[in-house]
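Chain A, query sequence.
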Amino acid sequence: MGRHTIFVVIAFAGLLSRQPVLAQQVPDSGAMVRISFQSRPRIVGRVIGQVGDSLMLMFDEHGNKLGIRLRDIRRVELTRGRSSAIGEGFLIGAAIGVGLGVAIGVSSHGTGDLTRSDVIRFAALDLGLLGGVSGLIIGACTTGEDWFVAPRSAARRSAMLGLGLRVRF
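Chain A, predicted structure.
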């Protein structure tokens, strides 16, 4: 007779189904969060705390509070703060400027003592710098929140490991 190995994996389905907030930790009091749901729009607010099975948020400047059942939450995101698009704006503006400069230079036949390649070089450099500075200014005016998904709870991760049992006969 050959040896047969049976792997039995017992999943803690009941335990896992009771874990709220997609296995994410409830953020600390005072944290700015963006909460996503299955069937309604996102909410942005500041965490007041957890009361029972609900997360309490202050969601506007008037101090209005809202309790959200943890089981209704699909995803919790935290903010790293506001950020601007200075670098992106500079790169995009410079690329557009260089492209326009090259197009202008290629379409020219040279002017005066300048050859076509001189015109390409100067137009690309000048318009690239102009575009870069323009993009930098626009990027500095464009700011937004930098969101990231809240980390998973250590309790949920350990529950997901489950229990493995190996039986030989």
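The two ends are 10 Å apart (CA to CA). Residues 1-23, 154-167 have pLDDT under 50 and may be disordered.
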